[in-house]
What we know:
Layout: H1 3-13, E1 23-26, H2 30-40, E2 48-51, H3 54-62, E3 67-68, E4 76-81, E5 85-86, E6 92-93, H4 100-109, E7 110-118, E8 131-135, H5 140-149, E9 153-156, E10 167-172, H6 179-187, E11 192-195, E12 197-198, E13 205-209, E14 215-217
Parallel strand pairs: 1-2, 1-4, 2-3, 4-7, 7-13
Antiparallel strand pairs: 5-6, 6-12, 8-10, 8-11, 9-10, 13-14
Helix pairs in contact: 1-2
Bound molecules: ribulose-5-phosphate.
Ribulose-5-phosphate is lined by residues 27-31, 81-84, 94-100, 103.
Amino acid sequence: MTADEMKKQAAYAALEHIDTDGVVGVGTGSTVNHFIDALATIKGKIEGAVSSSIVSTKRLEDHGIKVFDLNEVSKVAVYVDGADESDDNLHLIKGGGGALTREKIIAAAADKFVCIADASKLVGVLGKFPLPVEVVPMSRSYVAREIVKMGGQPVYRENFITDNSNVIIDVHGWDITEAIKLEKELNNIVGVVTNGLFAMRPADVLLLGSEEGTKTVYAK
Ligand code: 5RP
């Protein structure tokens, strides 16, 4: 079974968590692309979606799913998104696709966050995947110097602009055992818009596609 087949399996399993008649929060990435295709099979039963990126909005609309602005909706019952890494607290690293800020906003607004991934994404310690940090462009060098003081190795993501017209610094070299503390410290650096640690608002459930079928993981 390929990683993509595992992603697809987890994505279709997420349909069981969708409340019909409501607005579904939709993340970004290759796993979420499968979820959008799955959502299209029940599109007559949902009101529509709120989307975390321009690319997901286009895929949703191509399927004929109505996309609302988050400000137009009073409730997002469920948010479904992928991750680059998860630990067993369901603290996540996200932002490999650069959509972390809008993803974090919808995750915060949602009642329930269902994370979908292939089995390789569950790790013992977060940080092997470089941690994305979205920054206002003029603050890039300053933020990078502050991250070096914190022991990280910042790498500017070349030729990439976010949907919010900002840039990304990917931070290598951290073993992240205190994710909530690090998430807050990074947020406190002036110029940082968002960082890719989803620990203050972790996933509520993790669906992992695997050879043995979809595994459902709750925070330990
Ligand atoms: C995008 C993300 C994605 O959820 C993350 O990068 C996982 O992507 P994929 O589903 O392609 O493995 O955070 O900003």
